[in-house]
């Protein structure tokens, strides 16, 4: 039976305006001079050149392996996805308005104006799906961004409306666009990437911040998936998540590189990584992600006390300073789209530059994956039975 998970359990409810963090006024990690880029970064930057954003590329260049994963996927959702160009712009800009990234909004708005959107439409995007002037379908597209950012889930009404016009690759790209840009906003805001001269228009400053969605915590665990896994004949067991998004191979390929980076190539201590992934899965009420990474976390040394801390959150538990700082960073990215100065300082006392970037990629990347899993209705794997949410969160 479908029912909402407990919204206030363990102080995990989503918060809005009061949680929005102040982005740093100067870069926390300076852009890397092009003379110091690796050949791999040069190649990725060349493929990304048509998108622009040189300061972002040079900042990600501080972590070449991460840059190789991040830039192709950003290019895909920016300009190559299965969505119509206008819908891609509406969805992207609404996400960037919600996540308060002046840098990314400015670049995307300039591109959208070149593509035919008007300045009045930019203002209307900031006002949201209930602003007068949208046709019914465009309002649905914009509403999907609000629902994903707030609830990590597209409601039945919005999903059914989108499903009338989009095929499966298009539906996947709706979620992927919002998830990816939420990740990049958190990274750009936290890193303090400076906007290049002459790029704009910036975020509208005279429109009050408001969202057109609420946290429902309604999930599809135990129900028929909206997007069924595409399991080839003769396949042995594999995680449902890997077969679900094969319906959109181009997106799956570039998105998968980010997940592979986080779980196999990132610089974080495995236990610290799993702290981040279990916490963001919990905040997004993604039982699949929670179960998968508690299972992995146990293998990395996660104790019962660690799990209690992750569920309680950094303001409600005690533990090692680095663990508390990792959880606080996750909460700040989830609710405010930027890591605060105090939390950044606490992390930077232990982590190096590449590890700091990997914190941003891990939290943002798996928030995006949670949006995909929740909205597609990916069902729990058989090996997750012993690692499910505690009953209060189901």
Write the layout of secondary structure elements.
Blueprint (H helix, E strand, L loop, with lengths): L38 H10 L5 H7 L3 H17 L4 H14 L3 H13 L4 H9 L8 H16 L4 H8 L4 H24 L48 H5 L4 H17 L4 H14 L3 H13 L4 H9 L8 H16 L4 H8 L4 H24 L18
Q: What fold name goes in the CATH topology slot of the largest domain?
A: AhpD-like
Proportion in helices: 55-70%
Determine the structural class based on helices, strands and strand pairing: mainly alpha
CATH architecture label name of the largest domain: Up-down Bundle
Radius of gyration: 20 Å
Low-confidence stretches: 3-11
Please name the fourth-level CATH homologous superfamily of the largest domain.
Answer: AhpD-like
Q: Give the helix tally.
A: 17
Sheet-strand content, in percent, reads under 5%
Ends: how far apart? 11 Å
- Please write the CATH class name of the largest domain: Mainly Alpha
**Which term fits the overall shape?**
globular
Largest sheet: none
- Strand segment count: 0
* Tally of individual domains: 2
Order of helices and strands: HHHHHHHHHHHHHHHHH
Q: What's the average pLDDT?
A: 93
What does this structure look like?
- There is one protein chain.
- The protein has two domains: 176 residues, Up-down Bundle (AhpD-like), CATH 1.20.1290; 154 residues, Up-down Bundle (AhpD-like), CATH 1.20.1290.
- With 394 residues, the protein is mainly alpha-helical.
- Helix 3 packs across helix 9, helix 7 crosses helix 9 and helix 11 crosses helix 17.
- The longest helix has 24 residues.
- The chain is built from 17 helices and no strands.
